[in-house]
Design brief:
The protein is 74% helix and 0% strand.
Length: 77
């Protein structure tokens, strides 16, 4: 992979983390953690927070793995 593609992948991983984390916090600030009021919306907010800590790092790790030529995933010129 060329450097431009790797840079785009790293930026995408960071943006995925930021957007999911922001969405989860925004939803939780609107509903709070009071499960009696609206448990479904609170669950969706917590889901987005958990998703942020999974999707962002996984995209970053996939980028790191694809960038290593010794793994056999990158075709050498």
């Amino acid at each position: 992979m060329d450097d431009k593609t790797l840079q785009i992948c790293r930026i995408s991983a960071f943006l995925a983390f930021v957007f999911c984390f922001t969405a989860g916090l925004w939803i939780l600030t609107k509903t709070g953690l009071a499960h009696g009021n609206d448990a479904l919306t609170t669950g969706i907010g917590l889901y987005f927070l958990g998703k942020a800590f999974f999707v962002g790092p996984m995209l970053y790790l996939a980028t790191k793995r694809l960038s290593r030529p010794d793994r056999g995933l990158v075709q050498s010129a």
